[in-house]
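The pair is listed for reference:
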Amino acid sequence: MTDETPPEEQVNHAHADIGIVTALPIEIGPFLSLLERQRSYTGGKFKFIGGVLGDKLKIVIVQKAVGFAKARKATQALIEAHTPEWVLSVGFGGALQREMQIADIVMADSIVDQHGHTLRVDLQMEADPKKRLHVGRLLTADQILLKVDDKLELGEKHEALSVDLETLAVAQICKETGTKFLAIRSISDDLSEDLPKEILSLMGESGSVRAGAVLGAMWNRFGSVKDMWHLREKAMTAARRLAKFLNSLLPRLMP
């Protein structure tokens, strides 16, 4: 017995309406709680989680895309496996302007890196400062920026609102493949103070604080543990705001 269904009527069960590329599970955790019928699998070095938002919007999220190179590979794998109509670079961002506050949402209308590469984003959305929604340029940096002075300098130099490590990589793959693209960042660290240097060793890929690193931090500087938990609280505030914004935005992307 053969399948006589015409090709145009056959269903691609792997297809997703929207794909999301994110670095750390902590960034997308609150949004995951909104998805029904979740399934997950590991492909290469990445974790994929699929689910349904609302009645029928199919979402696939690829995690552990930390840094530029991994973000490119994760985006390529996501598009090849699930052929989404949209791909979104989603996660935390560091503020580059004084007015940016924790859990503010930034959507990119352009992206730049520290080497002069730029890419425009076809974004049909206006900023709404009263609702803490900002539209502007994102900076993809080479490494995590700890110092307020460094952030202010780069923000002025590149006229950027926020910084992360992955957005341009995701955008480049989407441009190469002709996939619709958006970048959405929730501010997880503002310009009120420097980030503790221990963030480079304390935070694991899961977003959890590693026990061994905590002991090392306590030995070197007891206050760093308190700093890290304070940073995590701000990150969770940013993640919850991000989930709320995605829940509102994503259904509008698919008529």
Notes: The longest strand covers residues 86-95. The mean pLDDT is 87.
